[in-house]
Design a protein that fits this description.
Elements (H helix, E strand, L loop, with lengths): L23 H67 L3 H67 L18 H10 L3 E8 L5 E3 L2 E9 L4 E8 L2 E9 L4 E3 L10 E8 L3 E8 L19
Antiparallel strand pairs: 1-8, 2-3, 3-4, 4-5, 6-7, 7-8
Length: 296
């Protein structure tokens, strides 16, 4: 039995005031992002502190080696003094004296080479520490940029997804205007979403838990007329516009939000969009396609 489009059915007489505003999860995501940034900052600070501690230990070792160098130089001076005294007391020959001086010079050169090697190692350690500190600072800066980019994406998505009153006067859920928006709604998981592409035909097409027949399209005005078959009854939605939430209730669902039918695009002989249904309460059995004849 057909239902006149001008007389609302009992199921369509219920009106619900939807809530507006930003979903709570977005605020939670932003808080988590800020906490993640704080964690990265703390990690960077910890790594820098460890590197500075290692550098301090290296500097202490340098001081110890410098003290040992002073001691070696003192011993070298003592050795030279002993040689001079020995020369005077023992009347060493010129060849023996030259040999002793050559040995002392060799010791002095070896000590200078050791000093230069130690200075090079200290310089390399300092450069390595600076490189690691700069790398940590770069990673923290990159993390900040990633968080800012994610925040910008969230704000852009929030701007695209909006709410509107449906054709039954009930505030809709968030509305997608294209497939990208629909993927975002699916990711949120607030409702069940069934994407469709319905061609104009007398045969009903299954869309999620319901059957739908496309009766008429007006591509220039982006308008269409469909008949929805659910609960062994048919509901005609006439001259609806793309982007408009088309709403209807199912049997036993008067205390739940309505089903919503949203069309992205009105083509020459087809429509593209999605059907969204509440998650609670399950889905009603759809009318079999064989019995879903177009209303007369």
């Amino acid at each position: 039995m057909s239902i006149s489009p001008n007389v609302p059915t009992p199921q369509e007489s219920y009106h619900y005031e939807g809530t507006t505003g930003t979903p709570r999860w977005i605020a939670i995501v932003v808080i988590v992002l800020f906490l993640g940034l704080a964690g990265l900052g703390f990690a960077g600070y910890s790594v820098q502190s460890r590197l500075e501690s290692n550098l301090s230990k290296t500097q202490d070792q340098n001081k110890l080696l410098a003290a040992q160098l002073d001691q070696a130089n003192s011993r070298l001076a003592d050795l030279k003094g002993h040689i001079d005294v020995t020369e005077q007391k023992m009347h060493l020959t010129q060849s023996e004296l030259a040999n002793a001086r050559s040995r002392a010079e060799s010791i002095r050169k070896d000590q200078q080479a050791a000093d230069q090697k130690l200075a090079a190692e200290l310089n390399a350690a300092q450069q390595e520490s600076n490189t690691k500190i700069n790398a940590v600072a770069t990673e923290v800066g990159g993390a900040k940029k990633d968080i800012e980019a994610t925040r910008s994406d969230l704000e852009a998505t929030k701007g695209r997804l909006d709410r509107a009153n449906g054709d039954m006067g009930v505030m809709s859920g968030l509305i997608a205007h294209n497939r990208d928006d629909l993927e975002e709604l699916k990711r949120r998981g607030d409702r069940n979403y069934y994407e469709f592409k319905i061609a104009k035909s007398k045969t009903a097409q299954k869309v999620g838990p319901v059957q739908v027949t496309l009766n008429k399209v007006d591509q220039k005005k982006s308008k269409y007329t469909v008949t929805v078959f659910v609960d062994d009854r048919s509901i005609e939605k006439k001259d609806k516009t793309a982007g408009e939430p088309v709403q209807f209730y199912v049997r036993g669902g008067s205390r739940m939000p309505p089903y919503e039918f949203v069309v992205f695009e009105v083509g020459k002989n087809q429509i593209t969009g999605y059907l969204s249904t509440p998650k609670e309460g399950g889905a009603p059995a759809a009318t079999p396609a064989a019995s879903a004849a177009k209303p007369s």
